[in-house]
Amino acid sequence: MKLDGEMVYLWRAVDHEGEVIESYVTKTRDKKAAVALMEKALKRNGSPEAITTDSLRSYGAALTGLGTREKQEVGRWDNNRVENSHLPFRRRERTMLRFRQMRTLQKFASVHANVHNHFNHEHHSLDRQTYKQRRSAALAEWQALAS
Questions:
Q1: Residue 81 contacts by C-beta under 8 Å, 6 or more apart in sequence?
Q2: Do the beta carbons of residue 68 and residue 39 sit within 8 Å?
Q3: Rounded to 5 degrees, what are φ and ψ at 15?
Q4: Angle at 64 between CA 58 and CA 70, to 5 degrees
Q5: Which of 58, 67, 91, 103 has a Cα-to-Cα distance from 3 of 20 to 30 A?
Q6: What is the mean pLDDT of residues 132-145?
Q7: Is 0.85 topped by the overall pTM?
Q8: Which of 141, 112, 103, 120 is nearest to 25 (CA)?
Q9: Residue-wise pLDDT tens digits, 36-65
């Protein structure tokens, strides 16, 4: 994505349900950035059974450095869940007319992930009444946390 005319990269770790676990913004797309993201995600969430990535070589180098290379899964459509998790973020970013500073992008990415995870209830697999009840419960919980 572009940040004040320069390319920056938004790294995201997503769990098996499509919830964003970790967001990280860097100027480079190399092993150092991949290691930083994976260390943060593994420290907070523990070691997963499998780590699905795209075929970027820095992921393999980072996983080798962390000693979890055998858990890496790379496939043509395996990382669709991660790619689709970008859509709500990109939609919101467009309405905000982009970002100017890396710090504001990082703050927005982490806050957006938390809010989206809290209110996203997979409405395509629920009937309308159950979906509305879950949304109301999520809103009540959010308001209780805010006050």
A1: 14, 16, 18, 52
A2: no
A3: -85, -175
A4: 110
A5: 58
A6: 81
A7: no
A8: 103
A9: 999 988 898 888 888 988 888 999 999 999
What's the CA gap between 112 and 12, in Å, rounded? 12
Q: Which residues contact 3 (CB under 8 A, 6 or more apart)?
A: 98, 99, 100, 101, 102, 105
Q: What CA–CA distance (Å, rounded) separates 22 from 113?
A: 8
Above 80 in pLDDT, residue 100?
no
Sign of CA dihedral 117, 12, 91, 108: positive
Sequence-separated (6 or more) residues with CB below 8 Å from residue 44 = 21, 22
The single-letter code of the amino acid at 115 is V
Number of residues in the chain: 147
Give the three-state DSSP class for 104. Answer: helix
| pLDDT tens digit sequence for 102-136 | 787 877 777 777 676 666 766 667 788 887 887 78
